[in-house]
Amino acid sequence: MRYHILIKQILTVTLACLLLGCAQKAEQDLEKMIAQMLIVGFRGFELNEDMFIVDDIRERNLGGVILFDYDVPANHSERNIKSPEQVRRLNHALHALNEEPLFIAIDQEGGRVNRLKEKFGFPSTVSHQDLGDYDDIDSTYAFAARTARLLNELGFNMNFAPVTDVNTNPENPVIGKLKRSFSDDPAKVTRHAEAFISAHRDNSVIATIKHFPGHGSAWNDSHLGMADVTDTWDEMELVPYRQLIN
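Above: the chain sequence. Below: its structure as tokens.
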């Protein structure tokens, strides 16, 4: 009898340990999945062991990072980008931190939103509006391919571009005023965005489409607060998203 009781107790404890282990494993897996969904910024032109980003990638399975040329929170002109060779070394060091593939992203639209600037030794760029005004799909593809090749050579694998906002409000301070939209015609926006995306895919860089569900009609800058498009938004702003996603 005592033998059976002992066996029952052992099985109970073993089952409890297994269940606890499964729960802990599930929690660890969930934490990893959450971390893989995050892309964060950091300060520095090179890595050192004391930086939080190193531990976040190595120990916490962070999914990605984004590099900037200007430190907006600190209102400082230095952040991550100083020269082509420095950026290449930094990205190589980031990729080497973990066996898990790492997204290294940048906002390299061209024109005003251009982190890899000429003053740092990078090629000149043109804006989406310039490309849309010229309206030659081959030229848009060629410009985007040059951008994507540069990004790939530097170690980037994600570009937060192209902008697929329809320029319904040319006075918009962060889209129309900055020449970030291809056109006020959604079909034209779609054509040029598709060429931009194809050029990136052909050069092993992930492109994005932004800013869903449409920022072109806003009267204010969403970087500075809430951009309310309740009374200005039009369903045609969804056309590029529908067609490109399909």
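The radius of gyration is 23 Å.
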